Amino acid sequence: MTQQHTLSVSVLDLVPVRQGHTVQQAFEDMKELAQHAEQLGYQRFWLSEHHNTPTLASSATSILISKVLEATDTIEVGSGGIMLPNHTPLVVAEQFGTLETMHPGRVNLGLGRAPGTDMQTARALRRTTQETAFQFPEDIEELQRYLGPAEEQHAVKAHPGVGTEVPLFILGSSTSSAVLAAKLGLPYAFAAHFAPQQLESAIAIYRSRFEPSEKWPEPYVIACVNVVAAETAQEAERLATSAEQFYLNVVRGTKNPLMPPVDTMDGRWSHAEEAMVKSMSRYTFKGNAQQVGEEISRFAGRLQIDELMAVSYVYDQDKRKRSYEILKDAVSNTVQLP
C-alpha cells in the first residue's frame, strides 16, 4: 500500500496597505501574520518584490525578510521572489548570505525574471541600460557559485555568502521558467494566484524534463494560489470581494489600497472587467473549511503538487489570520497525497 502524506502549506505576503491604514501598519500586519503562521505550523513565509506600487509595501524585500526572521524562531522565510533583473547576483548573494549567517537553515531565495513593476520603473531599477531579463539563467548560475563552496569561487567572492548554500527556488508563470527550473534541478514555484493560464502545462514540462541535482534528486512543485477561508461560505464570499477589488486595480491600472469587503460587486465592474478578474484569479479557493479542503484536495491530487502557497487578500487582519487557521486545519484534515 502506498503511504500517504499531508500537503505542505506556506504563505506568500505582498504586504498590502489597507485603506485607512499606514505603511507602518502593513509592516506590523506582516510580522503578526508570520508569527501566526509559525504557530500554526506553516512550512515557509515568503515576501514578494514590487516597486512603484503604493498599495504594496514589499519593495525592500531582503529588509522585510530580516524583520520577519527576527520576529520568528523556526519558520523558513524567503523571497517570493527576488526579481533578479533588478539586482546584480553579487549583491543578492551578499544580502542572503548575511541573512543565512544570522539565521542558519531558515532562509529561502526564490528568484524571478520579471521586474515586478511597470517598464518605466524597471528602467529606473536596472543596473545597466541593457535588457537584463535575458541573462536570468546565467545570473542564477553566478549566484549559485557565490553561495557555493570555497573551492568553486572566482576572484570576486560574496562575503558573507561563500559556503552558505542558501536554497534557491525558481519562480515563474510560464513554460519557459519550468524548462529552466527543470534543467537546473531546482524546485519550481508557479504564480497561479495571478497568472493561471499555463499552470498545468508548466508543471507537466517541469516534471518530465527535471534533471536531478545534488540537493534535489526529485522535482518539487509549489503552486501559489488565492485562499479566502471563513466560518461560512457566505462570509468567505463577502471577504473575497476585497481580493476582487484588488485584482480590479490590476485590470484598470489603478493604485487603490486594499479595500474593505462589500456586499456585492455588482455595479463596481463591467462584465468585461469581471471576466478578466475572474480569469486572473481562477485559482481562488474560498468557502468554509470543508469546501476549501475538498477543493484543494482535488487540485493538489490532479496536478501532483508538493506544496501549496497561499495568498489571502482579506481586509480585516484578524479575519485574514483566521483564514490561514482554517486553511491549515482543512489541509491537515482533508488533503492526503500519495
Describe it for me?
The chain is an alpha/beta fold. The protein has a single domain, classed as Luciferase-like domain (TIM Barrel). It is built from eleven helices and eleven strands. The strands form two sheets. It has an eight-stranded parallel β-barrel with strand order 2-3-4-5-6-7-8-10, surrounded by nine helices.
In short:
This protein has a single domain, classed as Alpha-Beta Barrel (TIM Barrel), CATH 3.20.20. 43% of the residues lie in helices and 16% in strands.
List keywords for this structure.
TIM Barrel; eight-stranded parallel β-barrel; globular; single chain; 11 strands; 338 residues; two-stranded antiparallel sheet
Main sheet: strand order: 2-3-4-5-6-7-8-10
| Overall 3D shape | globular
Helix-strand topology string: EEHEHEHEHHEHEHEHHEHEHE
Proper CATH architecture: Alpha-Beta Barrel
What is the terminal-to-terminal distance?
10 Å
What proportion of the residues form beta strands (DSSP E)?
Answer: 15-25%
Q: Helices and strands: which structural class?
A: alpha/beta
Q: Approximately how much helix is present in the residues? A: 40-55%
CATH class: Alpha Beta
Radius of gyration from the alpha-carbon trace, in angstroms: 19 Å
Mean residue pLDDT:
94
- CATH fold name, please? TIM Barrel
CATH superfamily: Luciferase-like domain
Overall number of structural domains: 1
Count of DSSP-assigned helices: 11
Largest sheet: 8 strands, parallel, barrel
Low-confidence stretches: none
Number of strands: 11
EC number: 1.-.-.-
GO molecular function: oxidoreductase activity
Enzyme class: oxidoreductase
Protein name: LLM class flavin-dependent oxidoreductase
